[in-house]
């Protein structure tokens, strides 16, 4: 590992409140937005190691092995309706007993029938299920008659064994995100535990002396909006967020906070530009970090960065994602750099980018990609007001962020819309 902060010579004055020269490089060209996203994903390298989790604890992880069926589904022929299991053509002599779900019925002889509930195993010898509303017991004879039109076809209203899958069929591939729906399928297929990739551990460092933790903005200070917003979003992206720390505008304190973090990914807010108290570039330089992305041609959010930190004591690679301090700009940085990195580390497959029609012309930036809050309507993606870098009002009403290229998007044209990270 690189020398500790105390072993390095600080390039700032004693109180650490003056930005050293070389903090950011305004002459360095910003990376294209698509390239920055690809670099973030590629920098993750191989996914984190596989672990085994009980089904509830696997939620949000990515499968580290294919989900193979441990049994046929259904595991036996089952009734699709309430009614009677019947053997051969009618009329039938009904038995006195019945078959409920969870029971093992005895065989059914030719010309006989037995009452059966939805989901119950179909007795051996049964040819079909006669729906309750189609069956009638004839007075006098006690025979079961079919009052539907035509002959009851063999296999009618029976879910045959293996209709959904056979044992050892691949149900889901490696890299599938474990959702509640996946948990249900895994349980149905016989699983108690799943092999999944470890979730990347993230620590959130919120930088800035101007931030308040409670109350209304006052005395030139503003509320921290990013701490409450980003922590659940990062969890929703598959991260395990272990902490959120406030760090004052001080080079030595920032450098120490990054150095001391044991997280796989450190996410910072603010200090990514070249202002008088923007110390992140200097702190990374002193720690021996390697900048992978330093400014992206996207609005809002262009002064974002991605760095490879010195490895942890156990040799684990570590990364830092530097997000701008303005709220919507930080959201742009999250979907550009943090989300691809976290998905790569967690072993998640990348879905096809969703595209939709623009309900109206989407305003452009003359040179850069623009990420614009939109709402999905019947007419398509509709741009929302209050889309400035420091605003969250439009985002709060948005379904996603439209990716608007420098040329803009005309009404009726298709546009990529990034889904917002789910709340963790």
From TrEMBL:
Region spans: Disordered: 1-30
Pathway listed: Cofactor biosynthesis; molybdopterin biosynthesis
Gene Ontology BP annotations: Mo-molybdopterin cofactor biosynthetic process
Presence of keyword Transmembrane helix: no
GO MF entry, a single one: metal ion binding
InterPro entries xref list: MoaB/Mog-like_dom_sf (IPR036425), MoaB/Mog_dom (IPR001453), MoeA-like (IPR038987), MoeA_C_domain_IV (IPR005111), MoeA_C_domain_IV_sf (IPR036688), MoeA_linker/N (IPR005110), MoeA_linker/N_sf (IPR036135)
Cofactor or coenzyme needed: Mg(2+)
Reaction it catalyzes: adenylyl-molybdopterin + molybdate = Mo-molybdopterin + AMP + H(+)
Known EC number: 2.10.1.1
Keyword NADP: no
Residues in the signal sequence: none
Transmembrane regions: none
Keywords: Magnesium, Metal-binding, Molybdenum, Molybdenum cofactor biosynthesis, Transferase
SMART domains registered for this protein in UniProt: MoCF_biosynth
Biased composition (Low complexity): 1-13
Domain MoaB/Mog: 203-344
SUPFAM superfamilies (UniProt xref): MoeA C-terminal domain-like, MoeA N-terminal region -like, Molybdenum cofactor biosynthesis proteins
GO terms for cellular component: cytosol
Gene3D superfamilies given in the database record: MoaB/Mog-like domain, MoeA, C-terminal, domain IV, Molybdopterin biosynthesis moea protein, domain 2, Molybdopterin biosynthesis moea protein, domain 3
Family (UniProt): Belongs to the MoeA family.
Function text: Catalyzes the insertion of molybdate into adenylated molybdopterin with the concomitant release of AMP.
Family annotation (PANTHER family): GEPHYRIN, MOLYBDOPTERIN BIOSYNTHESIS PROTEIN
Protein name per UniProt: Molybdopterin molybdenumtransferase
Organism, as annotated: Streptomyces vietnamensis
